[in-house]
Amino acid sequence: MKHINIFAISDSSGETAMQVAKTAGAQFESADISYERYPFITTESMLSGILKIAKQKEAVIFHTLVNADLSKLIEDFAMANNLQSVDCVQKPMKAISSQLGFNPERVSGLVHDLNDDYFKRIEAMEFSVENDDGSNPQNLTKADVVILGISRTSKTPLSLYLANKQVKVSNVPIGPTIQLPKEIFDVDPKKIIGLTSVTKDIQKIRKARMESYGIDEDTPYSNSKNIDEELEYANNLYHKLGCLIIDVHDKSIEETATVIMESLDLDSYQ
């Protein structure tokens, strides 16, 4: 089954971009489509971080950014990196502007009150993007939550979902052949979350990823024995750190996030 990743990027909640993407994606029942939403993106630094992830995942990008410069940044990046992108707001605004005879306001996030909660979300989102996938380990102690997990345990989508709840997240890939940042031992174990899963689920996701790249799906990356060793390494590390372990194989991103927020008494975050 062909697998693709779709990113919905917005300066607002991302609901519109996500809905357009899912409406289009629903017409491809034989495809395995993963959707990731990146809301409240209002700065170049935040957007650049997400675009790097999009490049790594060869994602199709649906975006609703009223800021023309940010929108163009996506279009230019997509063209330069052979990615597909769909602008869901600039062309509609242009059509309305032509009919009305005057220009739009072009104010990002216009439908949102610029209150403290809004800026806390922006701050958390920017932090989480900049500290994705093991980047900037010196910031681990500054995070509200540090997420550990082997490849394909949904660390990045979970991080961005929590960031939208005003939680600053660092996520770190782990494995027998990956050097663990020494800073992890300076983090309060209560703030560390260890993600685990079952071998067959990880293998299925990895094989789909290899197939999407046009690569033989039977590689060391998708080998069940290697995945067993990675999961064993992860669980041993989690017990050594004394952190909370969450099995994500039967949980949605929302369910996992709820467990994390409740365990850290972050219920008050919006």
Helix and strand layout, with pairings?
Layout: E1 3-10, H1 15-25, E2 32-38, H2 44-57, E3 60-64, H3 68-80, E4 85-87, H4 90-100, H5 116-130, E5 145-149, H6 155-163, E6 169-173, E7 192-196, H7 199-212, H8 224-241, E8 244-247, H9 253-263
Parallel strand pairs: 1-2, 1-3, 3-4, 5-6, 5-7, 7-8
Helix pairs in contact: 2-3, 2-5, 6-9, 7-8
InterPro entries: Kinase-pyrophosphorylase (IPR005177), PPDK_reg (IPR026565)
Binding site for ADP: 149-156
GO molecular function, one term: protein serine/threonine kinase activity
Characterize the quaternary organization of these chains. Answer: single chain
The tally of helices reads 9
Helix amount: 40-55%
How are strands sequenced across the largest beta sheet?
2-1-3-4
SS class: alpha/beta
Q: SSE string, helix = H, strand = E?
A: EHEHEHEHHEHEEHHEH
Largest sheet: 4 strands, parallel
Poorly predicted regions: none
Q: Kindly report the average pLDDT value.
A: 90
CATH architecture of the largest domain: 3-Layer(aba) Sandwich
Task: Supply the number of structural domains.
Answer: 2
Strand content: 15-25%
Binding site for ADP: 149-156
Family: Belongs to the pyruvate, phosphate/water dikinase regulatory protein family. PDRP subfamily.
GO molecular function: ADP binding; ATP binding; phosphotransferase activity, phosphate group as acceptor; protein serine/threonine kinase activity
InterPro entries: Kinase-pyrophosphorylase, PPDK_reg
